[in-house]
Amino acid sequence: MKFMGDPEEVITNNRYCSFITSTTLAIITVAATVASAAGSIITSRAAADQAEAEAEAGARQSEDQAEISRQQAARETQVAAQNEEDFRARQRRAAASVRAATGARGVEIGSGSPLLTAQDFARQAEVQSLRIREGGEVRSTRLEQQASLLTTQAGSLRSLGSSRASGIRTAGAVGAGVSLLKGAARTARIFQE
Fold first, then answer.
1. Residue range 50-74: average pLDDT?
2. Contact of 41 with 180, CB cutoff 8 Å
């Protein structure tokens, strides 16, 4: 290989080329590091937004189910009240039929066994009517409790989604910081060589 020019000049030019190459490599490293850090932050923000959106969708679904349970509870109360009223009406008609049949046979219903029988019939009808009402109230209360649990679940889902999103954002920021520190270390090594 043949050198052109003064050997000192060739050595100086090689150092200059080496410096340009090191500087260029350092700039590329810094740019890649910044891009990696920015990508980490952007990706974490998108993931955090997705986590919040999923939590919100789950919360809305729970709230919708809670509203349905509340409506069912109100309906159960109405149905039980109607069933109670229907039962009482049937029992009044049955009692009237028994009184009419007893009176037609000439039996006095205002005293003795017929009176006790009528009183027992009325008592049993009242007990059964109250059982019908209570059954509806129990079902209604159960549905109200379910609605309350679903509402609580909705709040918990929102809180969990917010916490998860916060954690994802923090992890993205930490990842970006780590990328920047690694890039700074690489850049320092380039200049040390």
1. 95
2. no
Q: Residue 162: which residues within 8 A CB-CB, separation 6 or more?
A: 52, 55
pLDDT at residue 129 greater than cutoff 70: yes
Residues with Cβ within 8 Å of 151's Cβ and at least 6 positions away in sequence, in order, are 62, 63, 66
Residue 149 has which token pair?
Answer: 């649990």
**Domain contains 1:** no
Residue 181 within any structural domain of the chain:
yes
Three-state secondary structure call for residue 4: coil
The model scores a pTM over 0.85: no
The 10s digit of each residue's pLDDT in 57-68 is 999 999 999 999
Whether pLDDT at 17 is above 80 = no
Joined tokens for residue 115? 């009176």
Domains in the chain, number: 1
Burial of 127 (0-12, 13-18, 19+ CB in 10 A): exposed
Range of the domain at 106: 7-192
What is the C-alpha separation between 75 and 96, in angstroms, rounded? 31
Supply 49's token pair: 């937004």
Is the CB of residue 155 less than 8 Å from the CB of residue 59? yes
- Whether 133 is covered by a domain: the verdict is yes
pLDDT over 70 at 146, yes or no: yes
Residue 185 counted as domain residue:
yes
What's the pLDDT at 88? 93
